[in-house]
Design a protein that fits this description.
2 domains; 4 helices; disordered N terminus; tt1808, chain A; alpha+beta
């Protein structure tokens, strides 16, 4: 859920506690300012056409789910020569728009899109649905990641106890599968990759 930007956010910038009121500059932030700001704070911040959006701090459960998925993806990426990372790591949807997926990967670790400051694309991204604002991951993010041309998008939804796998079909996603407890979620992109839904949703 996005934070109320009318409330000043406290950030540590240049080694000192500095209070920044984001509201007066909403719509006016430059990409350069956004990148500099996010490099000096551990807060997850997304950016769309001059507007900053603060994301909630992940819970322990969220991080535990992310860890299960990351380790499963890491194992196959190490075998196939790809690379996988977890938030915070920005991906550019288009010029002027950045998102912070929970997990993102490229099939080739030498992929030039996988840059240091931010990625300019990815082959697969995953989001773990937050209870604060579920439609963000289930309705808004599919549009964003399709716009970025990302071939596969996984929506891990603890609220509905499902994993939905979407694959890019032209300019939009189509549903590859909705996987429930007792099933294994599979990937179209990653041959042979699957995870047990129960193991993902019950990480502890």
């Amino acid at each position: 859920m996005a934070r109320d930007l009318r409330t000043p956010m406290r950030l540590k910038l240049a080694g000192e506690e500095t209070e920044i009121d984001l509201e007066p500059l909403q719509g006016l932030w430059s990409v350069e300012q956004y990148l500099k700001l996010t490099s000096q704070t551990n807060r997850l911040i997304e950016f769309t056409d001059g507007v900053l959006e603060l994301l909630p701090m992940p819970t322990k459960y969220h991080q535990a789910v992310s860890r299960v998925l990351f380790l499963a993806l890491l194992a196959i990426m190490q075998r196939t020569g790809g690379d996988v990372f977890y938030a915070p790591l920005r991906v550019e949807v288009r010029p002027g728009k950045f998102r912070e997926p929970d997990l993102l990967l490229v099939l080739n670790r030498s992929d030039p899109r996988a840059q240091d400051a931010y990625w300019t694309g990815a082959d697969l991204v995953m989001e773990i649905v937050s209870p604060d604002q579920p439609r963000r991951d289930t309705e808004e993010k599919p549009l964003d990641y399709a716009e970025a041309g990302i071939p596969e998008y996984w929506i891990v939804n603890p609220l509905q106890e499902t994993i939905t796998v979407l694959v890019l079909d032209g300019a939009a996603y189509s549903q590859y599968g909705v996987f429930h407890r007792g099933q294994r979620a599979t990937s179209k992109l990653l041959t042979g990759f699957s995870v047990a839904v129960d193991e993902v949703l019950d990480p502890e």
